[in-house]
Structure formats: structure tokens, C-alpha cells
Structures
1.
Amino acid sequence: MKITFVYPDILEIVPDYKGAFYMGIAILSAVLKREGHETSLIHITDPEYDLPRFEADLSVHQPNLIAFSSTTNGWERVRHLAGFLASRGSTIPTIYGGIHPTLAPQECIAAPGIDMIAIGESEQPLANLCRALQQGQEFDKIPNLWVKKGSTVIRNPLSPLLQNLDDLPFADRALFDYPNLHFELQGAATIMASRGCPFACTYCCNTALRRLYNDLGSYVRFRSVRNVIDEIKQVRRDYAFVRRVHFDDDILFLRREWAEEFADLYVREVRLPFCCNVHPSLCTAQNVETLARAGCDELRIGIESGNEMIRRTVLGRSLDEGKILEAFALARSKGMRTLSFNMVGIPDETPSCILESVKLNARAGVDEIQLTAFHPYPGSALYEVCLEKGMISKRRVTSYYVDSILDLPDLSREQLRMFQRYFCTFSRVYRKVFRLPTPVRKAAEWLLDGILTSRMAPSLLRGIRPIAHRVGVVLRVLMRRNRSKLKCVNQERPGLKEP
Ligand code: B12
Ligand code: SF4
């Protein structure tokens, strides 16, 4: 069987974006190859990609099965391509898997040109489907698959989650133009050591996925350390560009014993600098010490909001400010760079709440800030809230770096745009203000708070922007140094970090 994956991966705001490695289809491909099938990939990274090119690509690969994969942002493109196949009367079967069909299955299976969808982790279901298609057998009873049959849809139940992740083959990186992908061009190899996350943030897919799997086995699973290290060694052997490792796990150091064993083996057998994500509550002195010992030189920590009410009651993140500050301080004490994840435009957020986020980043001494507009993803608890409160507009937004799709009662779009654009600048300014002697600091903070939370702030800033820009340039030339070491990934300086 020849299976062609079709993966829209477009980030218009990143100039000349080459696409990112996606573990999901790389593992599916490895499983299919192990079963003796042939796989190929149409990795769509060009926003101008059109139907004639799709047709030409398909005629090169000549697939027996077309396998679409996407997040919610890619769904419109999948729908468009599948619709085109239907309009041409294509007889090649199609299947659509990934986070979007998993959490919004009705909408996806109803689309013309989509014959089947796969819900959740699908290594075994896809292998079973390919075997059945190859042998001309029935395929409408395969667990995890929804299959269109005439005007009805057969919805098969989910199979239990795979518990031993070591049973999976290593990801098929060669399916992609691996050395030329976004992070790989920077020398980083992407690795995942686990699946799942135990936290319950209301905006994240993990909460919805855990609910979906309910009692179908442990949701959080780790590969053995040996297995992870062997894969890294293999990737290093196969690709000379690898100078560092980029762990994409939701939270890498979740289990103490695993972390200790990993640090020992990684130092002995890999010794490459790496970065990973961590939840502030797991940033204990012991964990940070172990991460540093292993060679971690960058920690990515979710702040999301500086306002405690928003964090606790809206986002489901029960964290006090002290714990967040301690996490950054610990990382800094071990010489690690830090990156914070932040969102603006969260339901119930006001300009003052956003300012608290700005100030928390300033106090935490973050090296790099990633700022995105909050986006409600189907299946998440916060999506339901946004839907109920009628906040979701009809605006088409291609990326959450660019704009928000919500209409928020306490935050005008002008204010949101201002914070998106100047979040990092404001953070730099507050960082300087916090260093002033107390009475001056208090006065400056009071003044700044008043200006930045007023409705007039966006137009005021627009007015002084050209002057401020010139003054800034002159000052930098005079002082012959950069404004600050704080780097930003936001609307102004788009990059790509995982959320
Ligand atoms: C690594 C990662 C990335 C990587 C890779 C992109 C990707 N496609 O996942 C990068 C950095 C590029 C990225 C970017 C973005 N990401 Co991201 N990312 C993740 C992360 C942390 C892990 C994904 C992963 O590799 N999992 C491991 C694999 C093995 O599991 P899996 O993805 O579920 O794949 C299995 C099944 O889904 C299924 N499957 C998948 N495809 C197919 C296809 C077929 C045919 C079949 C049968 C089955 C199937 O089988 C797979 C194997 O079991 C997830 C969070 C998470 N825990 O899933 C967020 C997540 C996917 N990202 C998210 C978001 C929002 C984004 C961005 C939109 C952010 C942005 N910058 O604007 C972009 C979108 C990029 C894109 N191409 O669409 C959201 C998506 C929400 C949604 N409903 O769309 C998630 C769910 C996090 C969250 N907020 O909840 N991301
Ligand atoms: S946002 Fe992060 S910590 Fe929260 S559930 Fe998702 S992956 Fe886990």
C-alpha cells in the first residue's frame, strides 16, 4: 500500500517558513513502514499552495490512501483539499486524523471528500486500516475510526491507550525534508519522551483528551530512558547538523526517578545542550538541579497570566506568584536561559490584568517572552465558556500571533493590539522602573499603570511612536549598546515555539 500524508503547516507570519517536524505523522509513518507499506508526505508550508499543485503532487505519489493530518488552524485547508478530491470524483480513500478531528469529529466527518476520521492516538488503527484495504477486507469496524458509509457514519469505540511507548518504532524523520525544517535549521533535533500531561488547564487539549480516554489506561506515559537515549543517538548518527536537543514534551521532568535516570544516561551518552518545557510547580530546586546536571540550558515555563484570579479560575492553573518567581530564579541560578509563555485576550481579562502579566515577566527576569492572543480550541473547557458567553466572532484569524477571534467586554481590540505589540517593551520599561529607589519607583509605577490601562493608551502610543522610535535609535547609537537582553516572540517579532 502507498500512503501519502497531507499536512498543512502554514505560519504566514514567519518569513520563508520551512515547516516544523511533527512527531505524530512521523511515528505513524514508521509504524506503516514496519508493516511493509510505502509512505510519502505532502508538507504544505507555502501559503500560496493551490489545487493544481495538489493534483500534481498526488500524481507523483500515486497513493492508495490519502491521510490528512492537522491542528484546528489547518482544518480549513484540509476541508478545501478534500472537497476538491470529492468534486473531481476521486476514488482514492481518504482519512483525516490529528487533534482537530479528535476533538471536533462531527464537523470533520461531515465534510465532502473525507471518508474516515481517526480519533486520538492512531498507530494501530491506521495499520489495521491499511492491512484491511490491502487485503480487500471490511474496514468499518476498526476501533478509533469513524467511517462514512452512504449517508450514515459508523462510529467505532476507542481502543485502550498504548501503555508501553517503547513498543513504537523511532519516528520516521526521513519522511520530512528533515535537515531543512524550522528548528533543525537551527541545529536542533526534536524528541518526545512522553505522552500526556496530568494538569487540567482549561484552554489546553490535554484536559479534553484525558476526558475522552477516561478509563482507557493511564493517560500520562513515559518511554524508558534507554529508549529515548537510543533514539537521540540514532538521530545524531543520521544527521550531522544536530547540535542540541529540543524536547517537545508537555512536561519532561514529571517523575523523579525517570528524571534522575535520564540525567545520568544523558550525560554519559549524549552530552548535548537541550531545552524543555516545565510547569512552575515542578520547578523545584531538586528538579532544576537535575536538569542542569543533565545539560539543560533553556527552560520554558508557562506564566500565561500575571493575574491570580485569571490563572486560577479562568485558566485552571492554581499557582501563586511566589512559585512562578521562584521557578525563574532557580533556573537563572543554574545559568539557564528562560522563556515564558504568555497569553493576552483571555475571557474576563482587563487591561489591568494584562499589565500584571507584563510586570510579572519583568520581576521574573525572563530572557525571552512568547506572547500569543488566547485562542479557544474546540474541545477545551474554555472554548465552551467562550461559546456560551457569545464571545466568538466571525473574524478569520490565521495565527494567534496576529489577532484574537474573541470580542471581549472589558478589553477593546485597540487595547489588545497595543498589548500584543508592546508587551515586551512594557516589560523592559517596568524592569527598569523596578530598579529605581522606592519612592521614585512607586510614583513611576503609578503613572505608568494609569497611562497604560486607560482607554486612550493605544492612540497615545500611536501618536508618540515615531518620536519614541527616533529617540530610541539616537539613544542606542549614543550608548552603543542594545536596549536590553530581553528577546520577544510576538506579533512584532514572530518566531515559532510550541505553545
Ligand atoms: C509539538 C507540538 C507542535 C509542533 C508540531 C505541530 C503539530 N502538528 O502538533 C509545532 C511547534 C510545529 C506546533 C505548532 C503549533 N501548535 Co502545537 N503542539 C505540539 C504538542 C505539544 C505535541 C504534538 C505532538 O507531537 N504529539 C505527539 C503525537 C505522537 O501525538 P498526536 O499529535 O496526538 O498524534 C497522534 C494522533 O493525533 C493521530 N494522528 C495525527 N495525525 C494523524 C493523521 C492520520 C491520517 C491519522 C490516522 C492519525 C493521526 O495519531 C498520532 C499518533 O498517535 C501539542 C500538545 C499535545 N499534547 O498534543 C500542541 C498542539 C497540537 N499545538 C497547538 C497549537 C495551537 C499550535 C499552533 C497553532 C500554535 C501557533 N504557533 O500558532 C501551531 C500550529 C502548527 C500546525 N502545523 O498546525 C494545539 C492545537 C489545538 C488545536 N485544536 O488545534 C495543541 C493541541 C496544544 C494545545 N494548546 O492544546 N505544535
Ligand atoms: S497547558 Fe501545559 S500544563 Fe496545562 S494541561 Fe496543557 S500541557 Fe499540561
2.
Amino acid sequence: MVVVRYSDTEVAVAAGDTLLSALERADITVPNSCRAGLCHSCLMVAHSGPVPAAAQRGLTAQQVAQNYFLACQCHPQEDMAVSLGGTERRHDAVLVHKQPLNDGVLRVRLKTDMPWFAGQYTSVWKTPAEGRSFSIASLPEDGQLELHIRRRPDGLISSWLEHGLQEGDSCQLSGARGFCFYTPGEGSETLLLAGTGTGLAPLYGVARQALANQHRGDIHLYAASGSPEQLYLVDELAELAERHDNFHYHPVVKCAAEQHPRLNQGDLVDIVSSRHHDLKQHRVYLCGAPAMVRKLQKLSFLQGAAMTDILVDAFEAPA
Ligand code: FES
């Protein structure tokens, strides 16, 4: 008999029993449907104790790395502490730095104990009920959580971050979520990263994390904006490309690139799909405008990338 802790309750799980059944007997509600490892509605996360491998069959590498598992497939072998996969906990953070990167983007750095992977997203809360999600551009080893905020004079949270919250002030963050982050894998896959606007934030994090992990395969980062002035981190990325032979930076603009020979002019989807025909052995990361993400997701699949190797973060506008 092993003991699984869920919130403040300890639940005994008999040999051969699933965690889902044991929790239900203790009157703990876990969403579930198929009870066969197919629908993933019973997704939970382990905070301590080993996760049986069978309980993670069918999950992505990103979910496995974060200790997600399926309660209906979990026969615990040792004591564990668990919670629901979607449970939200908020973390304190302190603003340590903010800086406009151009007319449209603000860089914000926060100090927090919250764990994260570069490329995930978090919500910043102005009040307990008013928050917005932003992708994370920094690596945990950077020591500060970096967000790239699209500057909107009438934006509820973006305007508050730019003009209201001052360095040294506190705010709250939701736990980091999302699966758009780097996992080592073989280390030799080609990484294809494409984003629009502040979709660069998670891709910048993923690229730097891959380089920090000595990723051997080529890394192509396409960052697109409407005009040259709307691109940002251009010098940092060009410098990164100079330092790493396997990192290739491709800035893309819709128009007015004539004065800027380093820029690619055209549509991001057209440019990426015309240059990368065979995406077997590739991992693809797509972030930013939902229409672009959907188009390139489909094209990437048709060009040979496995669905589990296409990681997306579409920036849907808040309702
Ligand atoms: S209930 Fe469907 S995967 Fe567990």
C-alpha cells in the first residue's frame, strides 16, 4: 500500500489499483472520460515521487519533462504528491527592469521563485481578476523571467506594466504553462523556429536554451514583422548567429526592405515553406499570429514533420 498526497488529503492506493480509482473513493473529483489512456482528460502532475512510465505513454516529451501523467493509467509504486494538471497556483514576482526594445515592444524582467522553461507562458496579474498571458523569453539560468510586451496605450495589463508598475513593485504570476519549449532529444534534429511580432519571445528563449544545451543540429529562426522598424533584437540575434555556426537568423518583413539588404521581404509562410521542403527529423516551433501558426502547422505536417514535433503557441487576442 502506498500513500498519495493530494492537496491536504492523504489517499492510500492498494496494489493493482489506479490512482484515479483511489482518488475517487476518497471523494476527490478528477475529470475523466475513457479511463483507457486515450482522452487525456485525467491529466495530473506529480510534485514528488516517481511517475510510473506507463502513466506517461502517449504524452509529449514536454509533458513528460514536467511530470505530467494520466491518473487512469497510474499504478503508483512509491509515495507521491500530485495535483490536477490544470490547477492554477499564483507566484509572487518583483519587477526588476523594463526597457522599450522599439516603439512597439517593451522588455520586462521579473524576479520570481516560480519554475519555468524558456518558451512557456505565464499570466501577469494586476488584480486577482485582471491578468494577461505573455510568453517567456529567458532561460531559468538567467535568474530573471523576461517577457516581451506589445505596447498598447489602451492595453489593460501592457499599459499598466509600462506606466504603472515600477521597478521594485510586486505583482503575481500564474504558474508557467505550455509545451513550446526545448527538450534535448537526439540533439541533432534541425530546429525550425518561426514567429511574428512578440512571437519572437518564446523562440528567442528556445533558441538560446538549445544553444546552451550544445544542440548540434541547425537552428533556423525566422522572425517576421510588418516593417524593418517593427523588428526587434536584430543586433542580438545577428550577434548570436556570428557566435554559433549552427544558428541562422532570418529576419522577415512584409514591406520596405529595400534599404536593408540583410532582411527577407515577403510573407513568412511563403518564405519558410519555400526554403524547408523536407521536415523529417525536424522539430518545428511556431508562435504568434494564429493564422500564420495554423498555416505553417499544416504545411509542416504535410512536409514530413511528426505532429508531436510541431510545437505551437498561437497568440489569440483576449476576449
Ligand atoms: S480518462 Fe481518458 S486518459 Fe484517463
3.
Amino acid sequence: MTSERPDMSVQLGSLRLRNPVMTASGTFGFGVEYAECVDLERLGAVVIKAVTVEPRIGNRPPRIAETAAGMLNAIGLQNPGVDAVIAEKLPELASYDVPIIANLAGESVAEYVQLAERLTACGYVAALELNISCPNVSHGMMFSSSPELTGELVAAVRRVTDLPLITKLSPNVTDIVPMAVAAVEAGSDALSLINTLLGMSIDVARRRPMVGNITAGLSGPAIKPVALRCVWQVYEAVQVPLIGMGGIMDSHDALQFIMAGASAVAVGTASFVNPAASVEIIGGLEQYCCDHDLCGIGSLVGVAHS
Ligand SMILES: Cc1cc2nc3c(=O)[nH]c(=O)nc-3n(C[C@H](O)[C@H](O)[C@H](O)COP(=O)(O)O)c2cc1C
């Protein structure tokens, strides 16, 4: 075993992370809610809940339901709106030494551009993640279902920000690769794969859909094979770093994503089961590198393809 500590840092465009593990948007609030039980400064980055131009109260309840190997959610992008996020949420999170990645959700190109301008100018944010893949609002997957619209949106946002730009893609498409290629050609520095899969559940006692929105996004271990397949396919098609997510519960899962081609990973549903899951996964990845005499985590990215 090597006595040197492995280099866990990763590069996403111009953004360097101390390690490859971040939180998945919408599963970690605005970060500070978790500060009592998680050392935020251990994380590679905190990805905050989706931000919209106007405040949103979200969908009608019930908004979540448990499934055999995961959960359904239809939160509906509840958030206080970009003004309040910048004034009330980001300053506190920025007092921690951890990069903040903002997740943006708009209903039009103009709204995404407005969000990108505001969040770039505020100075708290290290990168922007374009959420073009939310299955729980009427317009949520419009952009991620078309390479043309994906490209148009990314190009428009690219023109107004120098921050690293990450595009978050949807698995709810026939072929994810053309969307990935379009996002990269339009200037995306990295891609997040994947958002939730569209699903539903029926409450037999009430004879009604379990979730108020009827359909909802499936996450957790149930979607891991789908997410891994998406990362695998996109890795073979583009040259930018990928952030893999979907059912990562422990460091073994995270390693699978890295070996499939992810440079970084995001932990979502696992944080509801164990708030410290993300930090434990960092420890597990470091231990794997030590056990296998690796000088850095980077040497594992995409190894399963060779
Ligand atoms: C309750 C909940 C809320 C979510 N909210 C957002 C969101 O606001 N923006 C976004 O891009 N993804 C959102 N997601 C999707 C996650 O970021 C992630 O892509 C997905 O859950 C897959 O990862 P997981 O299986 O580890 O949870 C949400 C997921 C859950 C479970």
C-alpha cells in the first residue's frame, strides 16, 4: 500500500473540486440545512435546489411516495425564487469553504438567461447546472427532449456567463446521446446524468394515484442501471467531464459510475436515508484508491471501457 494520500481532486471545466462527490440538486436543500450532521467542507461541491425566476410553492401534496427500491417525487420545483435565494440562502452557504453549484430551472430561454446572469453576478456561485430535465412540471422536459432546443438554450446561456456550465439531461428520451452532443457543441463544459425517470404509483386503499401530481420522478437504487447505461453511452460520444448520479448509495455504487466514465458523482436519495452518505462515500473512494495503490481517482474514470 502506498503511504501517500491519493489525489482525489477532479476538474470540471475551469472548476477544480477537492474530491468527486457532490450533492444532487433537490436532495440537500440549500446545504446549510445539513450542516449540523454533515461537514459541508468535506464535500466536492454542494448543488443547491433548483432556482426559478419567481418563487414557486410547488405541486399539491402528497409529493413523495416510497417504492420498492427508491422513491417517487413530484415536488414541483418549490423554491423562494432567485432574489430570495441570492439574498437569504447563498450568503450563509458561502460562509463554508465548499464550491456552490446552482441548479437553474426556467420556462423559456429568456428565463434561463436571466437566472444565469443573476447567479453569475451575485458572486457566490462556482458553476451553473442547467436543469432541463425536471419531469414534475409541465414544461420541465421540453428542452431535454430535443437536441435543437438543448443546443439553443445552452448557447444562449453560454453567451452570458463565464462560469462553468453543466447541462443536466433526462433519461426520459429514446436516445440520450444526441442531447449530450448538442449540449457540448453549444458550449456546455460538463454534463450531469441523470435526472429522475418518469413513474407513478397507485394507492389501492384510496383507488387514486399515490402522488398528487399523478406522475412523479423515480430515483434511488431502482434507477442505477439506467443511469449507468446513460453515463456509459455518453462517455463514448463526448469529451467533456460527466457527473454521474442515480441510485448511488455507497462508494461501491460511486465506483461503478466512475468506471463507466463519470469524473464526478452526485448523491441524491441516499441523503434521505443517511444524511452523511456523501461524506462516507468520499471516505470509501479514498480507501479504494489506497487499497489499490492508485495515486489518484482520475485514473479510474472510464476504465471499464478499455
Ligand atoms: C426530492 C427530490 C427533489 C429533486 N429536485 C431536483 C431539482 O430541484 N433539480 C434537479 O435538477 N434535480 C432534482 N432531483 C433529481 C436529483 O438531483 C437526481 O438527479 C436524481 O434523484 C437521481 O439521483 P438519486 O437516485 O441519487 O436520487 C430531485 C430528486 C429528488 C429525489
